[in-house]
Specification:
It comes from Candidimonas nitroreducens. It holds the Pfam family adh_short. Belongs to the short-chain dehydrogenases/reductases (SDR) family. The chain has a single domain, classed as NAD(P)-binding Rossmann-like Domain (Rossmann fold, 3-Layer(aba) Sandwich), CATH 3.40.50. About 45% of the residues lie in helices and about 15% in strands. It has helices at about 15-25, 50-60, 75-90, 110-140, 150-155, 160-180, 195-200, 205-220, 225-235, 275-285, 295; strands spanning about 5-10, 30-35, 65, 95, 140-145, 185-195, 245-250, 250-255. An eight-stranded mixed sheet has the order 3-2-1-4-5-6-7-8, sandwiched between helices. Helix 1 links the parallel strand 1 (about 5-10) and strand 2. Helix 1 runs parallel beside helix 2 (about 50-60) and helix 1 crosses helix 9 (about 225-235).
């Protein structure tokens, strides 16, 4: 499905990014495997994860090259995209999968924790998307696939920085889809469920709960189950699909709604704070979105 195409996949040394890179290579794409090889909090660097993914693609008969630049840096993102053009002659697909975590309950979150996460996720998605945009525009085609999260779409505890970044990416994708549609370019998001090292670190479960559920959920929600959706969205088979948010969990795929007005109140002589207080809470009580976490919304087991 991706024969003749060139993809850049960020965060592709491990987890979901790695499986997407392998999946795209298996469908014929030449892949730039980008990963600095940092720890989960973004510290350090290790070339081996990206190189191992490249080696595995080569062993399967595919084409790939490694990139170790950081998406958090504007100039580095330019080099990542240029490496695709220099190595394989063009660029057709950008998958924004690179990410880090700096979880903290909000009243204890430090500015450095906020900045680090937004730099990799939100700024990284912008840097990579913007670097590819002139190439996509010139050739009249291209596809962006961004990893978002239910932490932003639904809610999570102790992840204000991550949630804000991921919901920001959803807005970025929607704008890309609109701005770039005249050039034949599409942009979509995936909110993945897969028990990678990032998901396993999310707060909210006790050590006992994690131990009891970990092995089962690792088998039910795997990173390789996300890759088919990403491959499809990057392919010409998804030519009519843009500006959407999808989910993938186990063998399920689903489409998210996006914010639209659901209730209205009109008052001919206008509103005051007092009249709003008298009417709005009772009128809209049943329609207010509850403070739920992802596990509250997804009340069924993945199969």
């Amino acid at each position: 499905m991706l024969a003749g195409k060139v993809a850049v996949v960020t965060g592709a040394g491990r987890g979901i990014g790695r499986e997407i890179a392998l999946g795209m290579a298996a469908e014929g794409a030449a892949v730039i495997v980008n990963d600095i090889g940092a720890a989960l909090d973004g510290q350090g660097a290790d070339a081996s994860p990206a190189q191992q993914a490249v080696d595995d693609i080569h062993a399967a008969g595919g084409q790939a090259a490694a990139s170790y630049d950081s998406v958090a840096d504007w100039d580095a993102a330019q080099r990542i995209v240029q490496s695709a053009v220099d190595t394989f002659g063009r660029i057709d697909i950008v998958v924004n999968s690179a990410g880090i975590l700096r979880d903290a309950i909000f009243h204890k979150m430090e500015p450095a924790e906020w900045d680090a996460v937004l730099k990799v996720h939100l700024y990284g998605a912008f840097h990579m998307s913007r670097a590819a945009a002139p190439h996509f525009r010139a050739q009249g085609s291209g596809s962006y696939v961004h990893m978002v999260s239910t932490s932003g779409l639904i809610g999570s505890i102790g992840q204000a920085n991550y949630a804000a970044a991921k919901l920001g990416i959803a807005g970025l994708s929607r704008s890309l889809a609109m701005d770039m549609s005249r050039f034949g370019v599409r942009s979509n998001c995936i909110a993945p469920h897969a028990f990678s090292r990032m998901i396993e670190s999310v707060p909210g479960a006790s050590p006992e709960e994690k131990a009891a559920n970990l092995e089962k959920r690792r088998k039910q929600t795997r990173a390789d189950q996300i890759a088919p959706l990403a491959v499809f969205l990057a392919s010409d088979a998804a030519a009519g699909v843009s500006g959407q948010i999808f989910g993938a969990r186990g063998n399920e795929v689903y489409l998210y709604s996006q914010p639209r007005p659901i209730r209205t109140l009109h008052r001919g002589d206008g509103w005051t704070p007092e009249s709003l207080a008298a009417q709005l809470p009772a009128a809209w009580k049943s329609s207010l979105t509850p403070l739920e976490r992802t596990r509250d919304v997804f009340g069924w087991e993945a199969i």
